[in-house]
Amino acid sequence: MELDLWLDGKHVATVVERRSGRLALTYSEDTVRSWGLEVPLISCSLPTPGPTEPAKTRAYLEGLLPEGELLRTMAGRVGARLLDDAPASLSDLELLLVQYGWECAGAIMVLQHGASPPTRARYQRVTEGELRSLITNLPTAPLGSDPDLGLRMSIGGTQPKLLLAQVEGQWARPLSGAPSTHILKPEMSWPFSSHNEALVMSLAAELGLSSVAPTVEQIGGIPVLVTRRYDRPMLNAQVIRLHQEDVGQALGIRPVEKYSSGRITERTVGLLRNYSLNLEEDLEVLFRQTVFRSIVGDADNHPKNTSLFLCDRGVRVAPLYDAICTLAYRGLSPRMAVAIDAQWSLGKVDEIALVHHGTDMGLSDSRSRELVAEMESGLFDAISNLPAALLAPWPGEELVRLISERLARLRAGLAMGMPTQPIHWPSLADRGIVFDSVGGAGAGT
Ligand SMILES: Nc1ncnc2c1ncn2[C@@H]1O[C@H](COP(=O)(O)OP(=O)(O)O)[C@@H](O)[C@H]1O
Ligand SMILES: [Mg+2]
């Protein structure tokens, strides 16, 4: 393997497979000269100047790719082999990154060694009909990537999603390494998941945990969660890339190990102590994200669902994303990916566990209590002010009742418990939505 990593349009590092079969990333002399030593430029797990640790290098690179079915389909399309849900060898990893690594999370671009970055980055408008096809074709063309057409895009996660740009209010495909601006996540497995995530993320936006609340749009008969990318802000009328990585990458945890990596909180706090540009604020943000997820009933708090911005030779915790009430689905386990204090079940978390978690992270007991109390009252107000449009036409009121019950029990000093009345979700088929990977989806008759 021999890959070049470009950051913000500059070649900064090369990854090579040594004769021993071990992988190492080395920063270019220019990069080290301008940035210095021990700087987390690409990742906290890959500080300058390199050569970096082989296992962490591989974990970082694998972390740029999607997971599960998405990865299987994308690998099949370019002839890469997988083993145990990960690239089977370093050459398979190389092939996947060369084919899909022009537009990733953050500001990284992966190129074959010696290759020049694509020129003529541009946007291609899509009509409503094309947008429908892009959504309904996601099972065969994940992310909307199409290496043959210069759409080489990759992003972590297991849920089907489409990466697009909004240009002058219209949807466009980002060609030849142009930055995308939005993530479109259709409801494909869990009923009303897009509505659920939109509601939870609206609460998060009200509480200042994320900058913009996503919306739900109907595309091709499917509800689609439309989220603006916080790592693609506008500067002087241009979309720019801010560099970010997820905590799995920052800790050197492979995507396939995201549910089994242990002591995540302690290790994340260790990273922040090393690299945060504002430790006190970042610890509080991380703690508030944890408290919020636990109250809204989100068990999927694995390290790939938290990210860090890398900037100015350090890191800041990125806004919250991918928060959804998983407890609303009886088929999903209430066991959290990462424990809160000694509790693994969302049902068992109470104020004592949350405050202990805060003090374990290094916050004072009084500050942890204050932050939990602020979250409780802020969430109570945010729920009371939810716009009616977010609650219908789907069992939104029931979801709010579930979250409100948890909040009330927390405020009463109790464990938040399991939902007293499970939500009965109508299935996609009951709602007349027919979906298949060949014919696409549409509102059935
Ligand atoms: N609003 C956002 N802005 C920038 N990056 C994001 C945003 N939301 C998600 N991401 C990135 O995309 C990845 C996948 O998104 P996520 O919503 O977690 O998908 P999944 O539900 O498949 O896990 C995240 O791990 C993160 O790197
Ligand atoms: Mg995720």
Overview of the structural elements:
With 445 residues, the chain is an alpha+beta fold. It has a domain at 244-411: Phosphatidylinositol 3-kinase Catalytic Subunit, Chain A, Domain 5, CATH 1.10.1070. It has twelve helices and 21 strands. It has a six-stranded antiparallel beta sheet. It has a four-stranded antiparallel beta sheet with strand order 3-2-1-6. A three-stranded antiparallel beta sheet has the order 15-16-17. The longest helix is centred in the C-terminal third of the chain and has 20 residues, at 365-384. The chain is globular and about 60 Å long. The model is unreliable at 437-445 (pLDDT under 50).
Radius of gyration: 22 Å
Pairing-aware structural class of the strands and helices? alpha+beta
How many individual β-strands? 21
* Average of pLDDT: 94
Largest sheet data: 6 strands, antiparallel
Shape: globular
- Count of helical segments? 12
